[in-house]
Every structure is written in structure tokens, then in C-alpha cells.
Amino acid sequence: MPIRFDNVTYAYPAEESDLVAVREVSLTIEDGSFVCICGENGSGKSTLAKLMNGLLQPTVGVVTVDGKTTATEEEKELFAIRQKVGMVFQNPDNQMVASIIEDEIAFGPENLGVPREEIGERITYALEAVGMSEHRKHTPYKLSGGQKQRIAIAAVLAMRPEVLVLDESTAMLDPRGRAEVLKVAEDLHRQGITVVLITHFMEEAARADRVVVMKDGRVVMDGAPEEIFRDREAIAKYDLELPVADALAASLVEAGLPLEDKIYGESALAEAICRSK
Questions:
Q1: Cα–Cα distance between 67 and 53 in angstroms, integer?
Q2: Structural domain boundaries, residue 152
Q3: Is residue 262 scored above 70 in pLDDT?
Q4: Number of H helices and number of E strands within the chain?
Q5: Number of domains in the chain
């Protein structure tokens, strides 16, 4: 179920800021892919995420989900698109509507009119998928940030989406919480769910199959992580930072250590250091 952007521009209304946040973007999110969209603050990446399921609609151009435009005036069609493309946002507390976790997971399916027996099955599936089954009867407000975000993901999974969009979902978390959420994303991708990760953490981008870099609302780089990170001049130009392993490799080469050029990733760096001795 691809998501396609065809020459899409989005400008926020004048009363908000008259800001053109996305400019002439054309790209396709392929079915079953793991795509990271990154860029500095204000680059347009979160606006792009909201265009994916019709939370925002293009000022110019067309966004289609599985061949259907998000600009439809039919409420039923737009609802179906939003069910297919589930979104998890930055602050997990803002996404909670219930005081008990299983009620939180059930909220979406109940609003879809899913039979009660199936709702129970969806709750079990969703909590198992994020590794939170033991918290089913607990309150979400006593959980850590990473655990809350995993519950937020579970609530979306209970709607049975085909695409999971994580819009800066790790930005407010500590390293442990970020690791928990990223593991869930990787596990879901292996199960066949399309994952779109919006982030400014390049360490997270390294986990994706494809990295899309945005600057001033435009797509300025698009490729496999190893291709993107090897262009160090462009990474600096677009105000991003290399993942730690890649930055360390570049520093070691500059310091005179005889490493191969264009090292990508922790494992490759470790092997290169061993070979250089």
C-alpha cells in the first residue's frame, strides 16, 4: 500500500504563520519499507508526516494512499485512509484517553464498531507486539516515557494499520526509552508493517532502509543510509550530524589512522580498526 506525493506543496493558513512548510515534494513510500525522514527543526518533516494520512491536505499537488487521494470530501474515505496510516506523536501523555491500559488500547477498535470478542484479541495482539502485556490492567500514568510511547503504538496497532508513522515519537525520551521504541518499530517492520520514522537523530536514521533528508520544505537527499552518511559535506551543509560511529571513523582518518575510506556503521568501524593494526 504505497503513499505517493506528486508535486506537493503545503502552506499553513495566513492567520497561523503564512508559512510554506513543504515545497514541491514528489516521493513514494513503498509498501513494506522502513523510511526515515530527517532534517533540522523547521525543515518540514512533521508537516510531511501529517500529509500522509489527511490530517493536513496539500495546498498544491496530490497525496494518495493506496491510490486514493487524501483530499477527499467523503468522510468515510478519509476515515479509511487514517485507519490504514496510523500515527504516533511526540508526547505520549497527549495521546492517552483512558486511565487503564487495556481501555486505552480498546478505544480505537470500539469506535470502529469492532465486535467485543475481536477487541479482546486486538488488545492482546497489540500489547504483545510492543512487549507490554504484563501492564494490561495498569494505569499508563505510572509508566516511563518509553513505556507510554509503546502503549501509544499499541493503541494504533489495535486499529490494524498497514503503515505506522512515528512523528518525532522518540524526541522526548531518554536513550533507554528511545531504544525501546526503536526496537518495537524494527520488530513491526520485520512483521511486514511499513514504518515511517520522523526524527532529527541520525543514529535512528541509520536503522532505516531509506533516508529522506529535508531542508526548507524540500527533499534534498534520498537514498540508503550508507549512501547518505558517506556524503559528509552534504550532511554538514544541511545542519545534521553523522551517527557516532561514522563521525568517529572520519576523525580517526583525519588523525592519521590508516582506515579505509567511507566506513559505515559500528561493525564496519570495529573491523576496520582491527585490520589497521
A1: 13
A2: 3-224
A3: no
A4: 11, 10
A5: 1
Q: Is residue 266 part of a domain?
A: no
Query: Contact at 8 Å (CB) between 165 and 87?
Result: yes
Instruction: Report, as an integer, the average pLDDT of 118-140.
Output: 92
Alpha helices in the chain (DSSP H): 45-51, 75-84, 101-112, 116-129, 145-157, 175-190, 202-205, 225-230, 232-237, 244-254, 266-276
* Distant-in-sequence, close-in-space partners of 16: CB < 8 Å, separation ≥ 6: none
Nearest Cα residue to 108 out of 165, 162, 155, 164 = 155
- The grid coordinates of residue 232 equal 559528509
| Chain centre to alpha carbon of residue 154 | 15
Say if 165 falls within a structural domain: yes
Mean pLDDT taken over the chain: 86
Residue 150 in this model has a pLDDT that exceeds 70 = yes
Report the DSSP pairing between strands 34-38 and 218-223.
unpaired
pLDDT value of position 154: 93
Give the domain CATH number at 136.
Answer: 3.40.50.300
Average pLDDT over residues 220-228: 91
In angstroms, the CA 270 to CA 259 distance is 10
**Residue 233 placed within a domain:** no
Residue 65 near residue 52, CB atoms below 8 Å: yes
In a domain, 169, yes or no: yes
The predicted model scores a pTM of 0.86
Pairing of strands 163-167, 20-29: unpaired
**Residue 156 CB contacts under 8 Å (≥ 6 apart), including other chains:** 86, 87, 88, 108, 164
Quick one: pLDDT band at residue 86, thresholds 50, 70, 90? very high
d(CA 41, CA 200): 8
One-letter amino acid at 144 equals S
Place of cell 508526516: 49
